[in-house]
Amino acid sequence: MSSPRILLVDDDQWLLESMATWLSEQNYRVSVCATAAEAKHKLAAGEFDACLTDVCLEGEDGFSLLRWCRSEKPDLSVILMTGYAGPDSAVDAIKLGAFDLLTKPIIDQELTVALERAMDHRKIESENARLKTELSRRAGLDTVFSHDPRMLRIFDVIESVADTRATVLITGENGTGKSMIARTIHRQSSRAQGPFVEVACGALPDNLLESELFGHKAGAFTGANTDKIGKFAHADTGTIFLDEIGTATPAMQIKLLRVLQEFQFEPIGSNETQSVDTRCILATNEDLENAVQEGRFRQDLFYRINVIHLELPPLRERSGDIPLLVEGFLKKATREVSREIEGFSDEALEIMMNYDWPGNIRELENVVQRAVLLTKSSKIGADLLPPQMLRDLAGARHYMTFSKDQTLREALEGPERQIILDVLRANSFSRNLTADQLGINRTTLYKKMKRLGIDTAELHD
After folding, report:
1. pTM
2. What superfamily in CATH does domain 148-313 come from?
3. 93 vs 56, 141, 322, 437, CA distance in Å?
4. Peptide bond into 323 cis (omega under 30)
């Protein structure tokens, strides 16, 4: 480990050289200067672990340097030295942000203790920052509830690419959590402290969308009475999330291609080129490859945004996640209404797990919120589920009726075969992943496939 680096500031040349020599002997790397202006220059140009400065300096004093450090170098420990310390001086110095105040003549042991405390404090602050970052990264994934193998693979990709500038394309049906995944990528990245800006591209006509993304100058068009900063500029040093990108017109696609290639653009009505350091995440529920083939989406733009592709499965294909999602949404909803609710009944959960969820995760969250608002007991029963879910259940039960010539096992074979086929297709016909998702071992899956006449080789053809 390298020796701590100290900046020593004092206009007494003899004392400056004497302290510098002694500190070097104590295994500190020491830089010296005689004025606050020179100290600011050195602090701005390099990294230091602590700054030891006299209060009385020519020109700006030590307190002025301390205030500059608090503003420009908030993590730096600043120790003040003075020959005129009154009884309240230390308190005043600490209030201004000094780590310590030492009175001249300074005893070697006193200086050693102060510096060791400053180094220990810096280590603790650094470790706390590291832990906060790690907790934040973990919390980013913890907000996305899933045990589904496909989602777990997506989480692995997120962890791999989050801290890069690579463009990410998220696809999936409406309500599958594309915005939530985009925010997770942002929180997992080193841009987490920067802005996250979301734009619903399908909600605005082309001319307003251009102004929304790139901004405009006053007088650029009717109604543009003042300058406007666009979303790309707002997202500088952070992340911009362009939702419903498949709705962009051909003209807008050309403008987006340029900004995604160069991260430069001109506001409407301006000839001044702006550059931004922005990470771009895009999402759509459309099949962009098909849109390219039909000529509705530029092929070069598709290749530009399809660097990292995350395809989110619909909720009906990951029904095993429903109890986990319900638990998470239930905690959130109960916090908002300040009520103690134990959870959903087994019957209600069974109905939810067998429902098709056309609105996906968004619909599930709404169902949970509705039930929390309506329930008068600690246990939420099936009667508080939306009528449509109960009607679908009744229809499913009617479909499941069987003739007197069938055994129960024979009647269940049709639905069981369909479930296994759906999970196989969702997992690209991986038997290991399918068995994991169904909660059975691989041997049991093989036996079921053989009994139900499922041949994956034929399905691939």
Report:
1. 0.59
2. P-loop containing nucleotide triphosphate hydrolases (3.40.50.300)
3. 14, 43, 57, 62
4. no
